[in-house]
Amino acid sequence: MLKEITLLILLLSFFNANSQGLTKKNLLKLNELSIKKEKGSVIN
Questions:
Q1: Residue 33 phi/psi, 5° resolution?
Q2: Averaged in consecutive runs of 10 residues, what is the pLDDT profile of the chain (44 residues)?
């Protein structure tokens, strides 16, 4: 029983770290897109 609980905790922490990494990448992409839009609007 204890082994299963520790495995679950490990899996949850792994998925949590993975999702945080994905959200950070998405935020960086959104920042890049917003900067490009601002530059584009200035040019236009």
A1: -65, -45
A2: 90 82 84 81 59
